[in-house]
Model the fold of this input.
Amino acid sequence: MKLTLTIKGVARPILATIISTSMVLGANAQDGEQLFIRNCSACHKMGTRLVGPDLTGVTERRSEDWIKSFITNSQAMVKAGDADAVAIFNEFKVPMTSFPLTDTELTALVDYLKGFGAKVETADAQPTEVIEEVPIEYTEEDVTNGRLYFQGGQRLAGGGPSCITCHNVTNDQVIPGGLLAKDLTNAYGRMGGHAGVAGILGAPPFPAMTNAYSGKAALTDEEIHTIAAFLSVADDSSDQDVAGFEGESRMLMWGFGGLILIFIWVALVWRVRLRQSVKEDILKRQLRSI
Amino acid sequence: MWWNNVETKPGTGYPTKWEDQETYKGGWEKNGNSVSLKGAGKLKGLKNIFHNPHMPVLEDYYEPWAYKYEDLFNAPEGDDQPTARAVSLVTGENIDLKSGPNWDDDLGGSPDYGRNDVNFKDLTPAEQESMFQLEQMSFHYLPRICNHCLNPACVASCPSGALYKRGEDGVVLINQERCRAWRMCVTACPYKKSYYNWNTGKSEKCILCYPRLESGQAPACMHSCVGRIRYLGVMLYDADQIEKVASSNDKDLVDAQMNIYLDPFDENVIKAAKANGIADSTIRAAQQSPVYKFVKEWGIALPLHPEFRTIPNLFYVPPMLPAMASVDSDGVYDSTTESLWAGIEKSRLPMKYLASLFTAGDTKKVEDVLKKLLAVKISRRQTTVGDLTEAEVNAALEGGKTSNKECDEIFRLTSLATFEERFVIPPAHREESIEMLENTGDVKGNTGFGFKMRPERGL
Done:
């Protein structure tokens, strides 16, 4: 106690620094895990390849700065021509979302990733086989239910907003949706199939989406499955939709046909009417005689 | 807008062929024991609410114009006389005049206007042709204002309820604040006496100068009539009979209408009038009414186109146009007649024509009126000149179902009438009428005339 008292006056700032550092350090491992689950786990999984690559041992393959930079803005690196970044992008075809994390958070995340460095050897060969093995089957019912969830015909169990509020899917069965967030017509393919979609739906990595669903319970497995089913169908049929001129021309035809019908109806209902001035004949004759 | 116009007949009138209800769909048509509007009504009104398909267009009235008079003074010097060109008051552009008010005045342009008179519909082509033979040719004038009908089609047609007939004097008016420019009244009025004002967006019509009436003056057109042919007076009528009268058969229409007007000297009528709150001064005015004499006592005035079934309250003494000469079968032009007046059978205007105007086709009624008018002439001739035989005069009196005394009365009111005899206007008792609608106590003790609001267009 005496000791404490003596250093009190001088060492207070130091003490404070130590405490704050230890808090960061203390929270590090846990925070890194939380950050990973919240932001990365949608696309990345240790030991397997999902939408993105298996991250086991990534800290050994790449420098810490590279990883941080890639997390913050991967597309900038691709554009800048970083060889590794371009290679990854060419392999996976899916641009990684940018995560505006603070430096502390990035450090925590990298620290967390370091914890998986040991398994490099064993995990390296296996990942590609795992995902292809289990093809997901969607039933008609799944697609229908998914469309209902997407459109809001069926409320999400957690009470969150329906997808259509912010997202658009170009599909014959669905009305045009919001333009706030990304168009999801081809999201299924873009996100690497079921696993990617399910990952994002299970733990949305996007700040706006996270905000929109904050305070609401997460989507249930059934909801995720059916929405993924709908998006898969939407993706498959999107090619036909783009070539859906036939549908549009049919509508145009109906429009013209309807218009002509309305014209006929008007002509019939108002067939008895004054079509010209009563004096027309008189004036015509007079002008002729001039 | 000619709220008050004088047309030349035969002629197409203003607007063109206004009497042709197959074109304009004005007035009422008989519908069982009642009448229904020809061109308006609930279903027809709804159907045509955004476009009223039977209205006269600008050319049927005429495109108003003025002349560029300043050109007469400002034109640069040249070989020609400067002219003042006509400028449309609608577009402001130079226009070639095609027609104007009274374009067919005094049979001007009668190949087009006179021969297209709607009242020729009952006449054979030969009869029509004979009207335009030089020796036969004649015309008369038809002064037209709003008829302030007992069964006004315009009032019935208005979707906004902007038109109304005043209870105290029967003047039909358009409330400029309620008018919503549907223009159903323009179609519904068979006399085409409701006009749409494109500047204010409201319809307007003859108001019978009610502000003048309320202060005991005759309407301006009647007051200023140079020929002194316009008379104004009170008529008491039985409002319960209106539907029955309006829906009677064509041939009974005139008689039925005459019966709706009540004798103001009848004790029962006076009693009933008083019970209905009609002021003594109004009853007195009805007893002195010149109109009552013309219409009921003497029966020499007839309503215009009673077949429109609006029970019009303007009455016309039909014109007597004796032939002064004729062409016989040999083509000889004969300007001598056996007597001064050859009788109404030889009138230049065919009876069928007059009947089409005034009695819904009943020639007998027109003949009766004309015979009486002829008797008046003969009776006066005897009084002033005395060159006729007793038999001639008696025959004329008998033919006209009249007497020397009545002829003298007719002569006096038509020729020598004073202002007070021509216009018998009772005090308006406006205060009583207002009290029926508004609480005059609200403004008691206030000063001034209140606010005058400009009519505003549209909704």
